[in-house]
Amino acid sequence: MTSLKLRKVCIDTYHENVAYLHRNCPLYRSEGFQALSKIEITDGASRAPVIAVLNIVDDDAIIAPDELGLSEQTFAQFKTDEGSAVFVNHASPPSSLNAVRQKIAGNRLDADDFLQICEDIVNNRYSKIEIAAFLVGCAESGMERDEMLYLTQAMVKTGETLDWGEPLVVDKHCIGGIPGNRTTMVIVPIVAAHGMLMPKTSSRAITSPAGTADTMEVLAQVNLPPDKMRNVVQQHRGFIAWGGTANLAPVDDVLISVERPLAMDSKGQLVASILSKKLAAGSTHLLIDIPVGPSAKVHTQTEALRLRKLFEYVGDRAGLEIEVMISDGQQPIGNGVGPALEARDVLLVLQNDPQAPIDLREKALQMAGRILEFDPDVRGGQGYYLARDLLESGRAWEKMQAIINAQGANDEPLPPASLQHRVVAPHDGVVTAIDNLQIAHIARLAGAPMDKAAGVDLHKKLHDHVEQGEPLLTIYAEFPADFQFAKKAANENSGYSLEAPE
Amino acid sequence: MTSLKLRKVCIDTYHENVAYLHRNCPLYRSEGFQALSKIEITDGASRAPVIAVLNIVDDDAIIAPDELGLSEQTFAQFKTDEGSAVFVNHASPPSSLNAVRQKIAGNRLDADDFLQICEDIVNNRYSKIEIAAFLVGCAESGMERDEMLYLTQAMVKTGETLDWGEPLVVDKHCIGGIPGNRTTMVIVPIVAAHGMLMPKTSSRAITSPAGTADTMEVLAQVNLPPDKMRNVVQQHRGFIAWGGTANLAPVDDVLISVERPLAMDSKGQLVASILSKKLAAGSTHLLIDIPVGPSAKVHTQTEALRLRKLFEYVGDRAGLEIEVMISDGQQPIGNGVGPALEARDVLLVLQNDPQAPIDLREKALQMAGRILEFDPDVRGGQGYYLARDLLESGRAWEKMQAIINAQGANDEPLPPASLQHRVVAPHDGVVTAIDNLQIAHIARLAGAPMDKAAGVDLHKKLHDHVEQGEPLLTIYAEFPADFQFAKKAANENSGYSLEAPE
User: Fold this and answer.
1) In the predicted model, what is the mean pLDDT of residues B32-50?
2) Which 203-222 residues of chain A touch chain B by CB within 8 A?
3) Does domain B97-157 have CATH number 3.40.50.2300?
């Protein structure tokens, strides 16, 4: 077999392995390779081959005819020096693809099938096409509850897991889609002030105007190395960090990167995604919040109940104690939408400021109460009062300051961005609906979450009376172009429905 | 909006549009782009944007921070000079993706849905992920017969069509999977000698050891420009050319490039793929051959009948006169497998050589007979005898020589490749099965179709008696590495099943 010289091509191809071969490479024609063929690359030694999709290059500056190029991620996996001799072959499809075809044909898969699929995915043996086939196959014929369990367990097994060395490690998760809703940053200090262990790894926003990690970053460092996490949690019983540094349930990230552009709605995927991350993060007790509303992810009470049963079924069998609460998802929670504006709301609540948004405070207290009741010493029904006491006494705010300082505090509070525009009520009326999706859309156009000080402030909530000319919301933006886009969108549709008074 | 300078990046990304942005490009962070994001590229004028998947580059030699790179195919679509100002935006998902989600949810799509999907695909607005979702959605919940019709018509409409200006334009198609089976090259000269119009565009092998275009290329040029095709067909009533030069049903090529790696078995896709190509190629009458056998694509008579009904249903409604024959697909047809070896068999049949493989001759005569009966002047049941007469009289061979010369004859017959290995019978017996897939596999390992003279020659067919040590097949290869691979595979499994005599 002819060898080629390995070369790193400095192109970031994210979760897809890509290899580059020159069109004049003798192997190209003789082996019948073609652009988008899947190939197998080895160094001639016994280690497992790396699989990549082929791109054909016509430019010697990128690679020479006797070279094989690998994109950055692919090169990193190959763990061999540039210039080394490598060998290339047609890749056979991963053997677990048979199980995917079984799933597409409507059959059930067993635990071993899911494990093999996840192992092949985490080892980059699946192309995006094959991953999409798996996802659509699971979405369409649906997954049995046991299949969700198997997928969850397989996703945990094929990544790293954290172990905090304690029997009670609590966590919470809100099914997304509600702007504002920054309860985590109120709950963690309350729960940690009680002495419960709550090492909270959070995500950044992907399609929303702010994730908890983005919002916490307004106040403190969130990109904590594992050692730092352990230090902070030993001292303070909690932290709020970005979860992307650890390799927890990495298959989930790959599946999401393919699933998102398809905007598919797969319950099984949702359950496995959430529970695998929590299990891998070492949680033992988990509170799940399912907001229900016309513009929330879950539209009806029935749907929410069905989802609750799925979480309970899989959680029980995977060894995770689960409590599910179904909440009001008819409108955003809090006033601010965007990292800095949401951080402001969180601080107002923790500081017991009379200006604090009541809905954010109430929801956070209820959730914290449910979590506190995971403590065997807390009497059923007393969690809420305990949480309120921890908040009103200032102990939660003290705890939050300690956590912020331990993670690395930012110097200054961040004022809202300077370009500001008020959207006013076109006539007198009562607020009958606020569209979560449209509010999130306006906030993102304004620059959130990339521009931390950008976003939207809501001045009216559901059932509020408004007079013509009164402000409904304020847009904050840093850059003129974003400002124009957001204003235009808000002028076309502010997200508010007003009904004229009788 | 900030503009970037357009640059062509000489990378061949086949059917997927790829754009390259430098990591230090100011737009990269400010817009929240990410590797694998889908972006929309415009030149600021009113023409439709080009959609591409983003790769992030860390090497100034590939592109500079103020440039936007496009892969070769993407650049060609954009039709703007290098250095021009271009603008980049997040791409919204193609609107037809809603229909794909409907299909995934198990609903039926209408003609307009399929047309919009095909238009978006042909305009490169679908990523591979989205195409895979469409294919799996169609495969799993299945397509109704009307949906197959709609897809067929949409694929024809979104490409070029040929018009031969005659009321009777015949064609044939064999459902693949049977090695050898080179009937087209016998049928075309017979039918053309009768005076029927048979402009035959053929494919090259993709997963098989030889396509008709590969085999014809042993004897003549097959890469004919459209003018040349018209000249040859006007003079000789037929040709056998490669169909890849015209843009016939281009969506089919895109779908196949995504479907193949998944090795999915979708009847609707198969029917739409074959009939759209024939309709686009201007055929009015079509004979379809469905070989049935344990290692053929279609395994049972029932399955073949079901497929026949689908072809008839869609063909009738799309205005294509269809005849379906169900044939014996238990073993390869002819002796040679590989372009040169199959061309040799074809010439032996056309020259009425006593060494000619009888099965190839008989099957070609039967098919040619059915096609000749599309002629209103040929009495039902007389086609076979007419075909045999055209063959035995030498008129078919004369016609073939005229066609070869008109297309551009190759100088020399191509002898089989020089490395040769005989696989012999391990014991006395009767041949009870020949595995089409294994024979094709051995021939491909030997180098077919890239090395035209490589392949396999079969010395025994079904029900033949063999003695221990008698040759079953001969492997021909050009290169030692291929030769070793093919020998190893054949020694492990020759594809022959022998039953010892009682």
Assistant:
1) 77
2) none
3) no
